[in-house]
Write a structure and sequence with these properties.
The chain is an alpha/beta fold. Helix content is 37%, strand content 23%. Strand 18, helix 16 and strand 19 form a beta-alpha-beta unit.
C-alpha cells in the first residue's frame, strides 16, 4: 500500500500489456494508473483491458486509477497515387478539397476549418513536422504553398498548424462515442486531446458531469495563451510533449513544461508529464542516460505523475520501463534538493477552513516529526489540498468512496485506503490509528496528524485537526 515515492506513474496498456498477468506485474513494479488509448483498439478490446485492470485491483487490494485518453481532432491529408511522393525544397505544392489521389504537385486536405484559419505566411507541418510548407496564397478550397523543408510524404499523414487557433471542437464524433462507452465502463479520468481553449474543457465537463475527472492535454501552442483558464476548469493537466514538440520549436518545450507545472502547482491542480520519457526502452532493456535525466527533472519540478506511452503499450520491456521510472523517482525524492524545490513553490490558498487546516497539518506534522498525516475525505478535495502542500510526512487517505480512491491514485503522495467512514470522533481516531499500523505507516508510540470534517460524511466540510499517538494496536 505504501509506495516509497510520492510521484505517481501512469502506464499505457496495449498489445504488450493487455493481459491480467502483465498488468499485475506492472502494478507490482510501480504503476499507479493505467491509460487506455482510444486512438487504438476497438470498444471490445478496450472493455476487456478495463476488466483486466479491475481484476488486478481486486488481487492487489490497491485502488487503481484508469485514464481514458480520447483521440481528439486528428487532421490528416489524403492519399497519393502510388502511396507516396517526394517534395523538393522551393517547389510549389497545393492542398485542396478535390476527392482524388494526390501527386507531386497537390494532395487532398479535407478540413475546411484549416482553410478558414490560415493566411499567407502561415506554416503547415506534415508528418510530425518532417515536412514544412509556407503558405503563399489561400483560396476558398485551395491553399498554395512553397516547400521550405522537403522529403518523402506518404498517405494520410498528420497536419499541424502551429500559429492558428482552429475553429473546431476538441470532441469529434468518434470522441463522443468513445466517451459514452468509457463512462459506461466507469473510468476514473478522461483526457482531452488537442485542447485549445477553456471552452473545450467546459464542453467535455458538461457531458461528463461527475462521472469522471477531466484531464486537459496541453499540446497546442494556443492552449498556452489560455493556460490559467484551462487549469481552472480542468481537474488536472498534462504536458503532452509529442505534438507540442512538433508545433513549437523543440528548444522551447522544456521551458513550457516547467511553466505548466509551475502554474498547475500554484493552482493546486495535479499535473502529468508525458511522451518519450523512456522511448529507447521500446526496444532496449535499459534507458539512455539522457532519458533518466529527463524523468528526474520532471520529478524535481514537482510533477504529480510521469507517464509511459509506447514503452509499456507496445514495447518489448514494459515491466522494466515501469521499474526504472520507479527507481528514478525514489532516488530523486531522497535528494535534499528535491525537498527544497518542493518548498519553493507557494500555492494559492483560499480563505477556507479546509485550506487552512491542510497547510497547518503540514507544519504540525513537521514540528512533531509525526509518522503520517491521515486525511478523511469523501469527494477527494481535502486529500488534493493536502498533496498540494507537498509535505515531507507521508499522506494516508481514508475514504468510503471507492471511486474517490481510484481518482486520487494519480495525485502526488496520496496513499488511498477504501474504508467505512468514521461514525464519531473517537472512531475517527481509532480507525486512523489501526489503519496506520496495518499498512506500516506508523508503529506504537508514533504521533499521527488527522484532518477530517464534522459531521462525518459531509463533503467539503474539513474542520478538524487532531494529533493522536498510536497506543497498542496490533498488525493484522
Amino acid at each position: 500500500m505504501h509506495r516509497q515515492r510520492c510521484t505517481r506513474i501512469i502506464a499505457t496498456l496495449g498489445p504488450s500489456s493487455s493481459d491480467v498477468e502483465t498488468i499485475k506485474k506492472l502494478s507490482d513494479a510501480g504503476a499507479d494508473v493505467f491509460r487506455l488509448n482510444m486512438s487504438h483498439g476497438d470498444h471490445s478490446s478496450i472493455g476487456q483491458i478495463h476488466s483486466a485492470i479491475r481484476e488486478v485491483e481486486n488481487m492487489t487490494g490497491r485502488a487503481i486509477g484508469i485514464l481514458a485518453d480520447l483521440q481528439g481532432p486528428k487532421l490528416r491529408i489524403g492519399v497519393f497515387d502510388g502511396d507516396k511522393v517526394e517534395l523538393v525544397q522551393g517547389q510549389e505544392f497545393t492542398l485542396d478539397m478535390e476527392d482524388k489521389p494526390g501527386n507531386k504537385d497537390r494532395v487532398r486536405l479535407p478540413h475546411p476549418e484549416i482553410y478558414e484559419a490560415v493566411e499567407k505566411g502561415t506554416d503547415l507541418l506534415l508528418d510530425d513536422g518532417k515536412i514544412r510548407l509556407e503558405i503563399k496564397k489561400v483560396e476558398k478550397n485551395k491553399i498554395i504553398t512553397e516547400v521550405s523543408v522537403g522529403g518523402v510524404i506518404s498517405n494520410r499523414k498528420g497536419v499541424n498548424v502551429p500559429s492558428a487557433i482552429l475553429p473546431m471542437a476538441a470532441l469529434t464524433v468518434k470522441d463522443k462515442k468513445d466517451l459514452d462507452f468509457v463512462l459506461d465502463l466507469g473510468v476514473d479520468w478522461v483526457a482531452l486531446s488537442f485542447v485549445q481553449r477553456a471552452e473545450d474543457v467546459q464542453e467535455a465537463r458538461d457531458i461528463i458531469g461527475d462521472q469522471a475527472k477531466v484531464l486537459a492535454k496541453l499540446e497546442k501552442p494556443a492552449a498556452l495563451y489560455a493556460l490559467d483558464e484551462i487549469i481552472a476548469l480542468a481537474d488536472a493537466v498534462m504536458v503532452a510533449r509529442g505534438d507540442m514538440g512538433v508545433e513549437l520549436p523543440m528548444e522551447e518545450v522544456p521551458a513550457k513544461q516547467k511553466k505548466i507545472i509551475r502554474h498547475a502547482r500554484r493552482a493546486g491542480k495535479p499535473v502529468v508529464v508525458a511522451t518519450q520519457m523512456l522511448e529507447s526502452m521500446i526496444t532496449s532493456p535499459v534507458p539512455t542516460r539522457a532519458e533518466v535525466s529527463d524523468v528526474a527533472n520532471a520529478v524535481f519540478d514537482g510533477t504529480d505523475a510521469i507517464m509511459l506511452s509506447a514503452e509499456t503499450a507496445a514495447g518489448q520491456y514494459p515491466v522494466e520501463a515501469v521499474g526504472y521510472m520507479d527507481r528514478i523517482a525514489i532516488k530523486v525524492e531522497k535528494e535534499p534538493s528535491y525537498r527544497k524545490a518542493q518548498n519553493k513553490e507557494e500555492t494559492q490558498l483560499e480563505p477556507t477552513s479546509a485550506d487552512a487546516l491542510s497547510a497547518a497539518a503540514k507544519q504540525v506534522a513537521s514540528t512533531l516529526e509525526a509518522a503520517v498525516i491521515v486525511t478523511y475525505t469523501t469527494s477527494g478535495s481535502t486529500a488534493i489540498r493536502a498533496a498540494r502542500e507537498r509535505p515531507k510526512t507521508p499522506l494516508l487517505v481514508l475514504t468510503p468512496n471507492l471511486n474517490t480512491a481510484r481518482r486520487l491514485a494519480l495525485v502526488w503522495g496520496l496513499n488511498c485506503v477504501h474504508t467505512q467512514d468514521a461514525t464519531n470522533f473517537q472512531d475517527m481516531i481509532d480507525k486512523a490509528c489501526q489503519i496506520c499500523v496495518k499498512y506500516n505507516f506508523a508503529d506504537k508510540n508514533d504521533r499521527i496528524v488527522i484532518t477530517a470534517g464534522m459531521p462525518f460524511g459531509s463533503p467539503g466540510k474539513t474542520n478538524v485537526l487532531r494529533i493522536a499517538r498510536i497506543q497498542s494496536y496490533h498488525k493484522e
